[in-house]
Amino acid sequence: MLRLSKLTDYSTVILSYMAKKPEDIYSVARMAAALGIAAPSASKILKILARRGLVQSRRGTNGGYLLARPPEQISIAEVIDAMEGPLGVTECVVGKDLCAREAGCSIRNNWRQLNNVIRQTLDGVTLADMNRSPGGRR
Known about the structure:
Layout: H1 6-20, H2 28-35, H3 39-51, E1 55-58, E2 64-67, H4 76-84, H5 91-94, H6 108-123, H7 127-130
Antiparallel strand pairs: 1-2
Helix pairs in contact: 1-3, 1-4, 2-3
GO molecular function, one term: DNA-binding transcription factor activity
Organism: Georgfuchsia toluolica
Protein name: Iron-sulfur cluster regulator IscR
């Protein structure tokens, strides 16, 4: 089963929350309380997202985090990449020389095609889309 980590799941929840009012600056405490996510987990996630360029941090009394780009320009694929690294349904899709059977594998290209379909789907869903009802997407 393909499954994202809890931190990746929480990161999409946090970013989708921020996408509702992308011009706002959000404190960790505000988001943690509003979303029911432990403050240390929210802080860890936001630091990772800041390093990856998806959010920006602001210091000071009214500091916090804000989206680095409009929600329509941040895909779910980018969020997953930021939290987990490159998407790959199998090791051989992520890089070379990770599988002993790689040279003679008859299904590697099929895994690549499948991985590409999943990636394109995730690239096509933005933070703005995550806040729309499922029937309301493009």
